[in-house]
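Quick one - first record:
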Amino acid sequence: MPIETIAAGPDQTPQNRGDGGAAHTEGAKKAKESESPNAAALETSVALMFHNLRIAMDTVDWNANICGAPAWRYIYHTIHSAHKWFINPGRRFDEPEPPFHTPKLDWPDTPADIVLSRETLYSYYEQVRKKILDYVGTLDDAQLSARPEGCVGTRLTLALGQFRHMYAHIGILNGITIANTGRYPRIVNESAWREGEGLEELYDTEVR
C-alpha cells in the first residue's frame, strides 16, 4: 500500500530541521570539548548523523520499492533501531513502543497492513532524534567506556553500531534517489556542519 501523502507541517520542512538539538551554551560546549573530547565529538557526530538521515527522508520516494517493501518501511526500521538500541538494548523490551507500532512493523521484509503517514514518521524521527541527543549530551568520556546495565558492549560500542546501521540505510535510501532521479542527495560533512554551511541544501551541488 502506498504511504499516505500528507503535507509537512511548518516544523517538518527542510528549512526547519533545527540546529542539531544542541543542549549547551557555547561556553559549555567548549568546556566539554576540553574535558571530555570523545563525548563532545560523539555529540556532534550524532547530531550530524540525524541531519543526514533527514536529508535522505526528504529526498527519497517513500513508495519506492526496496526488495519488495516501500522505502518508508526502511525509514521506520532505521529510526526504530536508534530508539531501541542506541541507549540500552538490554532494556529495549521495557521501552514502550510508539503508539502506532504493530508487531514486526520495524522489519521491512515482514508484510504489514498498516501504512504510516509522513506526518507520523517525521514526528517519530524528531522524538527519537531529541531523545538520543539529550542522552549523548549527558555523557562524559568515562561513561563512554562503561557498559550500560545488561549490555555486553560499552556505550561507545553501542553508538558505533548505530552509526554503522543508520549510515548503511542512508546509503540505501540515497541510492534509490540517485537511481530514480539522477540527483545526488547531500551528505553533510563535519566541517560544513561546524561552519553551518549549506545545511538547508538537499542535493550535492559542489563542482569538483
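second record:
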Amino acid sequence: MPSETTATSESTIAAPLVITRIFDAPRALVWKTWTEPESIKQWWGPKDFTIPYCTVDFREGGRYVFAMRSPNGEEYWSTGEYREIVPIDRIVCTDCFADKEGNVVPASHYGMVDDWPLELILTLTFEDLGGKTRFTLHHAGIPAGQMRELIGTCWNDSLDKFAAALAQS
C-alpha cells in the first residue's frame, strides 16, 4: 500500500461538488442533527448503509472518525479535521479515507484510483429561511470521472436520510 499520495494534475480535479437542500426544520435543529454523533449514526452514508462507529471531537482542530457498513458487511472508514466552525452557520473540515484506527489512508486502500487526493475539503453552510434551513454542501478536490458521480449519489442518499432524521426530531 503506498504511503504517499500520487500527484494529481489539476486537470483531473473537477469543480467542487455542490448540493443544496431546503430542510423543513429550524437551523439550530439542522445543525444539531448534523453535528451530534448519535444523530449522525441515523443518517450518514448511502442508502442501506449503517454506521457502526462514529466519534466526533467537534471543535476547530478536532477530528471525526466514521465507519460505514455496506449491506454485505464491507466497512469504509473516513476521518477529517474541523478547520472552521461558526455555530449554526458554517463548518469547514477535511475529508479523508481512513483505516480502523482513524489513520488517513490512500483511496487505493479501498480499491479506488491512485490519483485520488489524500485530503478533500468539505464546506457546509446553514442558512435560516424563517423556520426552514437552506443547507449547502461544497465537496472540493474530487477528481473528475465516474467516482465523482458515485460520491454525488452517496451524498444525495445521505441527505435523504438526513431529511428523514429531521422529520423524526
